[in-house]
């Protein structure tokens, strides 16, 4: 280890990129693996859980870490690409230590762990040295008082806690992109996953669910109460909600659809009515739709919505009333590049591309792929035989359906390098 800082906090380390000696990024830090023997002896840090490209998680021993600074981690480049599997003698700092209820010896102060620091011992091993503890909030305070104490001064870290909270782990997850948060949740022990799911708000849980494998989606949804499950489904994009509901037992699906808001449930039912892997089943029924009397300023204001994916924000769909799908007569699309070149006060109808070919809802997945590839599109309108816009199918919708079901677990493996397993 060269030029390493004397103390590194786990919450600041997680998410940092990891580079090989040539300066190529090979992944990101997702957790620390430690061996906890007792509350008096400092746990040895065995290594890092690293997410490599393709969302595969591997183990990188601390002996392979050559340098850590505020913005990145460097390794020897010798990585074992075998998927990380936690052993019974190992503890994950982020996944299992955060939010543990502990007591500070001497003062008797009780609180929850919100961070842990590691440092190098004289024998060059990395060990956990400090614990950051937060007391419960009191009176009008939003947050309780915080303490950073030596490892040996904290009691309760080695005890199994049946009702361990998830406040600080959820705070860390909220700093991640939904796909990265989903990967971390997927790897959590069952009891910790349940606590995290309970602590996430409905909107964030919906974002994460959309990024999880189907079996995880079904498992998580089945452990939510029907009312909350329906609320979470409402927060999901209709096409993702339809795919998830289709995986549920028919009686459960019917119950949840009845509990959803009528408009949201109607969108989902309509998507479920189409044959699987067709444009109708893949599309989103909520693209950016405007009338021909809208201005370009109106259109630009709509596509600035941060909740829109880039592919949905690339096109504005112009239709006659009604503007909810299925709409009135579809007139054409306006490309974001064209809108940016026109005066904001002019009508969006003046920037219309009425020559774009549309897709019928029964178009197969191969026909959708060929259509997007032929015309170099990231999205395309889906229109019925009467000229009504039903929705839009995007390139990310297409990829979700073309990739194998377990693509999140398989990922794309970097070139294999010879390495060593942890001992």
From TrEMBL:
Q: Could you list this entry's UniProt keywords, alphabetically sorted.
A: CBS domain
All residue ranges annotated as the CBS domain in the record: 352-410
* Source taxon at top rank: Bacteria
Q: What is this protein called?
A: CBS domain-containing protein
CDD domains, sorted = CBS_pair_Mg_transporter
Q: Does the keyword Ribosomal protein apply?
A: no
Pfam families from the entry?
A: CBS, MgtE_N, PRC, SH3_actinomycetes
